[in-house]
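Reply to dn_fold:

You asked what the input looked like. This is it:
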Amino acid sequence: MKRSTALHVLAAGAATSAIPLRARAADVVRFATIPIDTGAQVYYAEAEHFFSRAGIDAQVQSIQNGGAITSAVVGGSVEVGFSNILSLATAHEKGIPITLIAPAGLYLTKAPTSVLMVPKDSPARDARSLNGKTFAVNGLKNITQLAVQAWLDKNGGDSKTATFIEMPFPQMPAALASHRIDAALVAEPAVTEAKDAARILGRPYDAIAPDFLIAGWFTSVSWAAAHPDLVKKVAAVMRETAAWANKNAAASAVVLAAATKVEPAVLKSMVRSVYAERLDPAAIQPLIDLAARYGLLKAAFPAQDMIDKNAM
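and this is what came back:
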């Protein structure tokens, strides 16, 4: 090769290497969550840029109803949704093609974010005194109803005499204050907001287990199969976010207040969620087993069956 030709080739190569490579476009993932503390990881991940650093363009929307979130995921209008574990187990049993990819909030008996409340002037003092009463839960035949049933039976009451009605958590404080219901399984921040008119009678989730996974993040089986690398990325972001949120209550409260419109003073005084930092089937199994005993599931099955292979 002539010296002049070689110089031209080297120059061309140098010029090419000097041109910056175009950054790879982020993968769009649409998330749906219920705007409560237990399902707030997506808000924190956005605020702390965990999604963007993982190459994910997260588009987050709030939906008040877990059933609507499941429909959105199965229908393809969102890719990843938040739901309680019993609802996901019920969907799995029915053959609805969804799969669990990351954990959300834990229930811990030492820091309960959901409790059974009655009006302050209620004569009820124990489970037996609530026989024949009307209970509000945020979903019929879901984890909230199961917990109340198991708590009643475990503590001397009779769940077969109870009447359950469906009511969103934010409406429960007013319903208790006006005596439209006798009791309610209330979740934070509604627990703190209800304390002027209601009192805590018990911790129904203790009847499931002292500690267990209460909720998680899921997607459709078809999306998980088509996007295994994205499943791994989402799972990793949720783990990173859980660890951050568990160590940064003050910072996460600022984000949560903006996302949920809950007053900062309420957030400061309420019991905050603790997030699972790994997806552990053993933290799910007690809920599945109890649901089967109460007929909310036809039969128990291994919790591992609900979990996507790329999520662990």
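Residues 1-22 have pLDDT under 50 and may be disordered.
Hope that clears it up.
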